[in-house]
DNA sequence: CTGAAAGCGCTTACAG
DNA sequence: CTGAAAGCGCTTACAG
């Protein structure tokens, strides 16, 4: 048994020489579905093993014009929702035999240089989470035949697909829940004001409250960041007529807001203040927080994302597709629980009015 | 001004034709340092812009034998420490003009298929965080001339570099801190028992306690996972003679342990029970937890990792290098504070005995 | 400074 | 089923 140590440059030609076959035969051995005699194949495989040969994916990409690489652009990982998404994406892309090229951090905010990289590597698809895309860039991708999917964002752009949840309905549901809980003064800590998720969640929330006769909503801006959410909470909770019910646009901020309410204002949750979040991310489930929150079905969202990508890659047709999934209002301890409408499904409590 | 839309296959030859120069000239225009006349360069650049040309990184890789891709293998992102690391790695690699190919999740645990991918893509370097590497694979990388750096792990393997912090000293420091706080019964919630970090942290902790005359340490195993840590805490806190001081091998588990102690056992922290963690990750700083913890200097650890990689890539010499950095015991509210030894540095409280 | 040419390691018609 | 050959889009000696 040889050790299988690979010297820097083992090529298919070397394997061919060793196996006494042509270089084409070596290539066919490593191409699923190529026509090759079992005997030849065995010889090649043996030689390959001896030399520690592995096909060069770079050379293969050059000729097939497929890199089997998907670019994932994720501006910030601070919110655990995104690492969770990343992990699931990694799993599913690997299962489809695709690799994941990650672009994060500050560089991801200014999309131009990132897109230069993406185009240079001739990725087969692009997933944009927590980032948007300028119209020129998205058109450029479409023109180049590269499918783009927005994750948890949406846009009017023609060529860009998206996967989201019913944010507006989610916002409505939260409004109904807080109304049913008998709250009287409402507040909203917003996410990034330019994001579609934030707009939709707020719109639904305001709608529901208006139907309940409440048009006065205190608004603070958290920009989906902890520090901004804390500042917004401080301001809002210092109000003479402070809200007794707060919808915070995601759990990541809700955690920070709860700490401010409890430890800086001495408020009891939910007795003095009800807080509802969005996402149902890890810390929402931790006992210290127990956040009542609209869940986003992460796994199904990733399923849909990968599905759209695979479909567009294999068909070569880039037609924008918008998948919209539903979440549930998971009831925990951070908000007063209404008398009715809360049911237990699969071991968790969920708010389903008129059910 | 042209729109710059890129058709699928703009190549250097097409740009050359358009600019009225040779294909070599186009290549030189996009190769930093190549000898090209400013005038020629300008013509090429103009033509490239008109056609929306970008050099094909795949083709370039094939001939230069450098992919400018670094593989990052990160088994699990659940612990926020790792997303933080990932973000910083992304930033620093981008600054050095390298791309980051991410391998996560379950597939990362079984290293063989992952390594097959890594080798096929001819990555220029490999960073392993929260994963180890079998001896054959590390030797194979070394033989292939691919530098490997273990992040927050170490190993005896010859060819594999590592970046860690002084885990043993950290464990000692924590032991000293808890002794100075006047605790009498000690417990340890371990991480993965096979990991070097866990071994070293425990060894230092036990050493310090032994010097203080305590050789009896209650031990539970949390495997760096929340669920396991919770189970271990339940068991340990139900002990007739339960510890009044707990060292939990990382903050990720410490958060879970605190919730169990408070909400399942009704314990006050730190009055009934002191808890010290490790890492100084996000939630440790949240007011609900305020974990006293050994910090790991994440940015400097990433600096060191990238530094080792860049050095080995440019020199072509793979000689294992082990960088060991120091953290500090950051004092917050989860553990009783000793009378002396706690000093304030740069606005944070730190335990520095005999200082 | 420039262009013609070789070649990186593969895949894939093509002819047998 | 197999091999010889062309070619993917570049970089880089080489000669001028």
Automatic annotation (TrEMBL), chains A, B:
Molecular-function annotations in GO: DNA-binding transcription factor activity; transcription cis-regulatory region binding
Lineage: superkingdom: Bacteria
Pfam family for this entry, one: LacI
PROSITE patterns, per database record: HTH_LACI_2 (PS50932)
Swiss-Prot/TrEMBL keywords: DNA-binding, Repressor, Transcription, Transcription regulation
Residues annotated as domain HTH lacI-type: 10-64
InterPro entries, alphabetized: HTH_LacI, LacI/GalR-like_sensor, Lambda_DNA-bd_dom_sf, Peripla_BP_I
PANTHER family: LACI-RELATED TRANSCRIPTIONAL REPRESSOR, RIBOSE OPERON REPRESSOR
Protein name stated in the entry: LacI family DNA-binding transcriptional regulator
Source organism (scientific name): Devosia oryzisoli
């Amino acid at each position: 048994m040889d050790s299988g140590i690979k010297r820097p440059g083992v090529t298919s030609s070397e394997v061919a020489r060793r196996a006494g076959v042509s270089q084409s035969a070596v290539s066919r051995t490593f191409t699923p579905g190529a026509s090759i005699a079992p005997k030849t194949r065995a010889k090649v495989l043996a030689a390959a093993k001896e030399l520690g040969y592995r096909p060069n994916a770079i050379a293969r990409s050059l000729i097939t014009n497929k890199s089997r690489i998907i670019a994932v652009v994720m501006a910030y990982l601070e919110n655990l929702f995104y690492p969770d998404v990343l992990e699931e994406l990694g799993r599913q892309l690997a299962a489809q035999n695709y690799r994941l090229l990650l672009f994060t951090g500050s560089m991801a905010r200014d999309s131009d240089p990132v897109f230069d990289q993406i185009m240079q590597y001739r990725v087969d698809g692009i997933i944009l989470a927590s980032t948007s895309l300028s119209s020129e860039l998205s058109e450029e991708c479409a023109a180049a035949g590269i499918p783009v999917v927005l994750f948890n964002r949406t846009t009017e752009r023609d060529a860009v697909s998206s996967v989201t949840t019913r944010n507006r309905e989610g916002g409505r549901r939260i409004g109904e829940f807080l109304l049913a809980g008998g709250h009287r003064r409402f507040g909203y800590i917003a996410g990034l004001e330019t994001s579609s998720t934030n707009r939709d969640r707020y719109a639904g929330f305001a709608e529901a409250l208006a139907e309940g006769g409440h048009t006065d909503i205190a608004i603070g801006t958290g920009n989906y960041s902890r520090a901004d959410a804390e500042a917004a909470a401080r301001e809002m909770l210092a109000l003479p007529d402070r809200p007794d019910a707060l919808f915070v646009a995601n759990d990541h901020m809700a955690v920070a807001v709860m700490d401010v309410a409890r430890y800086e204002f001495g408020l009891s949750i939910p007795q003095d203040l009800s807080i509802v979040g969005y996402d149902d991310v890890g810390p929402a489930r931790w006992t210290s927080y127990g956040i009542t929150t609209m869940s986003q079905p992460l796994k199904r969202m990733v399923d849909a994302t990968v599905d759209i990508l695979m479909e567009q890659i294999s068909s070569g047709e880039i037609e924008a597709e918008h998948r919209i999934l539903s979440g549930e209002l998971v009831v925990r301890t951070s908000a007063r629980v209404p008398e009715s409408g809360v049911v237990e499904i699969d071991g968790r409590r969920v708010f389903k009015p008129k059910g």
